[in-house]
Structures are given as structure tokens and as C-alpha cells.
Amino acid sequence: MGGRSGRKQRITEAFDELHGALAAALGAADGLQDAAVRAHAETLVEQWLRTEGLDDARADPALAVPLANPQLADVVARVEADRAAAFDPWLRTGPAALAELLERAAPLSAGLEPGRWLGQVGKADGIEEVPGLWRIGQGRIGQGRIGQARIGPATRAAGKSLTPPVTWPVGVPLLDESHLQITSTGDGRAQAEALVETLLMRVVSHFTPGLVRLHVWDVGQFTGVVPGLYPLTRSGLLTVHDPGRLSHLLEELSDRIRRVHTRLLIDGHPTLASHVAATGTRVKPWIVTVLVGDGRPLADEDHWQLQRISRGGLASGVSLVLVDVPVTLQAPHETVRLHDGGAATSSMTGEHVVVVPDPPLPRDAVTRAAHVLADAHEHGHARAFADLLPGPGRWGRERSVTGLRAPIGFADGMPLDVVLADESPHALIGGPSGTGKTNLLLTMISSMAARYDPDELELYLLDFKEGVSFAQFTRGRRDTTWLPHARLVGVNINTDREFGLALLQFLADEMRRRAEAAKDHEVTKLEELRGADPDGRWPRIVAVIDEFQLLFAERDDVTKKATALLEDVARRGRSQGIHLVLASQDVSGIEAFWGRPAVFEQFVLRIALPRARRVLGELNEAAMDLPRWHAIVNHDSGVRHGNEVVRIPDATARGTTDEVQRVLHGTWSAGRPEPVLFDGSRAPAVADLLPLLPAGGPPQALLGQCIDVAGRPATAALADTPGRNVAVLGADAEDAGRVIGAAAGSLAGQYPPGSVDVVVAPLLADARALLARFTAAGHAPEVVALDGVRARVEALAADVVARLGGASRRPVLLVLLGADAADPVLEREGIEALRRVLRSGPETGVHVLGWWRSVARLRSTLSVSATPDDVGAWVALDVQGSELGALVPGMMLSWSPRPGRGLFYDRAQHSRPEVVIVPSSEEP
């Protein structure tokens, strides 16, 4: 600081010398010029009065004429001599000294002429020297306002000048030293705007991109006064504020000043500059805020807020540039006044020096330079992801006993943590499409996973939109690594709201399990449980649900159940180490939570991306002015004073999230199960579901995959009890064939070879693959054509009667592929025989697996002597819920058909039908 203070002192002394020389010269000239004017006037009046005979008339001052009276030549000469004697000594050395001082005080882009520095934009690399001055133009003595206003008429008429025209570069202080106040009259406004644009370009060009952030507010237009600098907005170096939101900008600056003083200047340093000088590190960028007014006073509250910012801003790295904003600053500031014709005066050089602003920079050159700066900043921004990760040897070393803490971005150049703990148990993230929500979530997941091992942190990740960003955390065809912390990954589930419900149910069950364990150990929360049960595995759970509002999009049972579960988990999960991270474009329209404010009150951590609404507090609209790649992080339930502006690094580029996963997989994957992947766009393969069938007990007919956390197979047990038949309902032959094929084919391997009689009637579908499966399993399937169905069914009905009388009960499977197609050939006797098989067959070991093309046709088969209870399990495909009421009397079903989905009901295990996924056509 000593060198900088000395430089500032030399600058002050040099300009004091200039001011003194000007005052002495102009003071001497003023006195002598006044005497000369009076003597000349008296001579003229006397001559005129004698000529007119009006010796006693009084002179009219308007009669004054140019000082051309030979009688005054002596006086004029003395004026010029005295003024030269007072001013000439300074002229010999002063301008050169000032030019030398500015060269030292304003290095590189701060002081060079535009043509010499604009081409070097973007090449600055962490310059530590902070310029004391920033060039704005040239000072001139001997012409302009000095010559026109202060030189006598006789000298002007003669074309003379009391001082020779001399020039030198002029600069103004900024950043830590001073604010800048600019006023303009007439066409001086255009010059003022050009001066501001050039000055800002000098400032942002001097340092590594990112060390200076610009904010612009213009009362008269949305676009502000620096259009050439707009490319800086894409990287967050420039923010243009709405004309009607001055109070929000001032509040943001006030919060910034408050945070610097309360969080950074707590070690005795009076200013941010002194903190930087002592530590050698700048952790907060400079904020240069340009306010452009129209000459009219600000509102009282804005006026006083601006006064407070001006007083505390410089110590916190906040500088103001005011253009035609009428306010008296009670803080160090310089003034520049621009007049008609382009001339200006500055408080730095005094009112007797004309300042000629540097000519405006070419607009295309400014725009190119701004693009270069933005690119340079974004390039550094992309590399910054690595700065969020732990250092070597620190991966997975953190403990989650008291909570989770991990940085997700950079606030003023320093990593900023998000915290999920008892005090801030859940996070709510909001931002319109395209504002970086997915990037933020990837950053958060990677940062947390790098700090905690899988026994400290488990992740459950759902994405309701049609995206697959979370799928990268599971094994892929090219990248076979997976994230050891992930237990469940759900993607493309925009139409499978039941999966979100299943996750909430799982979390609620896990919450109760942990609560019971805590009760057994006589403790109340996870932190205490981990201490009481050190050998137990009690990781913290983080469930991330992107576009969670889709879970509550309908007025149905799913929304009703999900709302109750979410409220329960949000309220009680904190004590059991279960944390929710919900992301959405807009939470205000979720009808299910109208009148339930307590739900989101549990979401203490709020993160708002650019243009996010209603995520922060009701009156906190700071996110509206955020640039790209930034977010507001708030650990105080969205209250404005808790805002932290964070720059989010790119977590999607190669070498970021993928590299974190590679390292974590190599470290912790051994001996751990892979995460379950639920991809709503892919049908499960039968071969993948067969190993998951329940072991022991009666054979299980596989009907699809349940939509739950475990990805369980949907099965119906074929026990020897009444009603153990299976029906598939729907007109779509392809989906129906896949379900009935999976059901029958899955049974082939559950019976010992040759121990079951299989009768297949392929009435409306090809059964070759199914027959091949039974043959391969050691069975000899019997194929019955349409013309032989009646005889075979009647024979089977007779067998059932015999079995009821005590005959042998060898298992029999009757597979009807299009059962209703046999109605014309079965006739009354055949249909009655089929009813007998359905009603009495299961308890004797005879089970029917049939496909009917509609509910009505199944009801026709069951009417009179059979009931819906005789088909104890069914899967409905392209059938409306209103049609299914006949199969579940007294129950209202709101089911609407969906591609690849079915409604599964087994009266032996369900209180209500559940949605299942139809298996793929891949052969089992």
C-alpha cells in the first residue's frame, strides 16, 4: 500500500501545483484586466459626452467596445507580462510532469491511447497493480473556454492568446479510490455516454476477466448506454438492469457491502483493498455500477440508499459512475461536466482547464473486444469445475454426521458451499428452461459425491422431463463406470408419475425404519443414532427430483398420495438424515400445494437461476437480473439478506462430471451393487426380470415390471386356490402378446422338466417363441387349433370335475391367445366348460392364462355361472378405467391407457390396481 499511497500523493501534489499556477496567473490577469476595462470605459464616456454636449450624463455599460484604444496598450501589455510571469514557469515543466505521472499512475489499458491498447484486450492475466487513474481525454490550456471566457476582448480581436496552447493526458480515479459523477448539457450527453463506454472498456480490459463486474441502469431505456459491451452479459461480466428496478439494484449493492463487512472485514482491515494488500488474494471482484439518469431527482428512498452506498461502497469494492443523476455524494468522488460542443471540465484539473474527451471507440471494435473478454472468461469458467473438487488425498474424507456441505460455484471468486443439515434440511431450485438447472444439479451431485464416500451419502435421482442427464451415473455401453453413491436413477419418467410416488413412499418407509432404530437406541435423530450405533450403516440420503411439479400435475390419487408423503418426508426427514432437492421451472402453479405453505417452509435452502420466479422470498426478485451461468444461493428461506450470487461452472464438458465418476467408480465400486436404472422410454427385458422372481412358493406368472424403487417384477402367484387365473385385456395384439407371452414363458422354468401339461391355443397370435421356450425347458406343449378348442376345453373341464373327486392333480396350464375368438366355435356347451375350468380349475392345479380383446368379452365369458373373482389377476392395456369397474365392483378407477403401460390388479395382493410396465418383445 505504501507505493500506491505515495503515487496518489504525487498525483495530488502535481495537480495542486497546476491549480496554484492557474489561480495565480488568472488572478493577476483578472485584477489588471479589470483596471484596464475601467480606464478604457472612462475614456470613451468622456469623449462621447463632450461630443454630445452631455457632460453630466452617466455612462451606459452597454457602450463598452473592444479594447482597441491605443491609450490602453500599456495596460494590456502589463496584463500579458504579469500573467506570463505567473504562469510560464509551470508551463515549462508542469504539462510534462503531469503526462509522466499519468503514465505511471495509469499503465497499459488504463492510460494508453485507444489504438495502442484495444487490440490487447483479453490478454491480461491477474494484474495486481491497481491503476490510480484512468484516462478520459486531454487537458488543454490556452484555447477553448479559457481563451473565450477569461481573455480580454482586445486580445481576442487581435488573435492573441495570453497562454500558449498546451495539452497533457487527463485521468480520473476509480475503483477503490473514488466514485465518478458526470453531468452533461445539450449535445454533451452523447459525449458522456461515449466516455463511459470507453472508461468501462479500459477497466474490464486491465484485469483478468471476472475481477471487475459491471452493472448498468438507465432510467430512459431498457438497453442501457453501453451497447458495444453487451457480449459481456453472456458471461456475467455485465448486467443490464430494468429501468423500473433501481431499488432492487441498490438493495443488491447494499447487501454486497453488508456481506463484505460482516463476513470478510472481520480481522481488523478497514477496506477490501487493505485486506487484499495484507493477504495477497482478491476474493471479491470490483463492482462498477453505472447509473444513467435524466437530470430529475430520484425517489427519496432511492436517493438515501444511493447516499449510503456511496459512503460504504469504496471500502467494499463498489464504485459508482453517475451520469446526470442529481445527488450530492458524501464520499470521495470526481466530477466531469460535459458542455455543448464537446468541451468538458473536471474536478481533477479544475474549471480553468478544458478537457477534450478521447474520441469514441469504433463500435465494431468495442463489440469484438467484448466478445474476446467474454470468451476468455467463459474459458476460465469451464476450467473452474476442478476448483470445486477436494484436493489430492481428500476425496471421500468428509463425514456426514452433522450434515452435508459441498461447493456448487464461486461467489466473488471463492467456492460457496450449499449445506443440507438439520438447519437447512431441503433445497428448492427454480429456473426457466435453458437457465442451467441440469448443470447446477450435476455440479451439486459431483461435488457432494467427491467429498463423501458411499457409506456417508446415498443418492436417489429422478428426472421427470424427457432427459437422460442422470443416466450417465449408471453403466452404459461405452462408459461402463457408474456412480457408487447412486442407488436409484430414474429418467424419462414424465408420464410415469407413479415412479415419483414410489420414491416418496420408499423415503417415508426408510424414515420410519430409522426412527424405529433411533427409538431402540433411545435417541431422536440421525446424528445421535450414528453415535449410538457406530457399527450400523446410516448414510445421509439425498433425493433429487428434477421438474418435480409434474408429479402433482393431475387431480388424482397419485397427486393426493404424493402430496401427503412429500409433506411427511419434508417435515420429519430432517431428523433422520433424509434430504429432498426439488427442482422446477415454477412452483407457484402447483395446485396441490395451494393452502399448504408449511410444505415449502421446510425448504430452507433456496437456489434461484436467472429469471426464476417465486423460488426466493415473496419480495426477493434478485434472480430477475442474473446473467447466464449464475444463481442466487440463499440459506435463509429466500429472505433477501441471505442472497449470495454464485457463478456455476460447466459440469457438462468432457473431463468434469464424467471424470469425477471415473475416479469414484475406481475407488468405491468394488463389492457394491449398481444403481437401479428406471428409464421410462425403455421396456424391461424379460431376461432381466426373471432372476428377480420370488424364490420358493407357488410358480409366479411374470406380467411386467412394477414402477417402484426396487424395479420389482409384477407377478401373479399360481397357487392351487380359487381364482388363480390370469387375464390380459386389450385390443392391441402386440402389447397383449408381450404380456401373455411373458406370463406363460416365465412359468416354463419354474416347473421341473416334464412335470406340467401345457395346452396352447394360438387363436389370434403367433406362439412359436412361446412353444420353443417350453420345449427348451423340457416340457412337451400341446398346440390346439381353433377347430379343436371346444373338444379340448370340454375334456379339461371333465378332468377338473374328476380332480375335485380326488383324481391325480398334475399341473396344467391352458394358454388362450385370443380367448374371445373361440366363442363362435365353443357354443353354449363349450363356453360353459370354459367357465367350469375358470371357476374350479385353479384349486385342482389347472390354471388359465388368457387374452381377451375387451372387458365386455371377458364378462361375456364369465357371465351366469362364473364371476370376476374367478379371474383373480388381470392386466388391462388399452382399456379405459370406467370399463374396468365391472371387474372391481365398488371401486372407481381413473386409469387412462398409456403406451407400454398396463393396469395390474391381483386381488390376492392389491387393495387397488397399480401401473406396470409391459415387458419388451425380447424373447425370454
UniProtKB/TrEMBL annotation:
Coiled coil: none annotated. Keywords: ATP-binding, Cell cycle, Cell division, Nucleotide-binding. One of its GO terms (biological process) is cell division. It holds the Pfam family FtsK_SpoIIIE. The keyword Transmembrane does not apply. ATP binds at G431, P432, S433, G434, T435, G436, K437, T438. Residues 413-618 form the FtsK domain. The keyword Nucleotide-binding applies. This is Cell division protein FtsK. It comes from Pseudonocardia oceani.
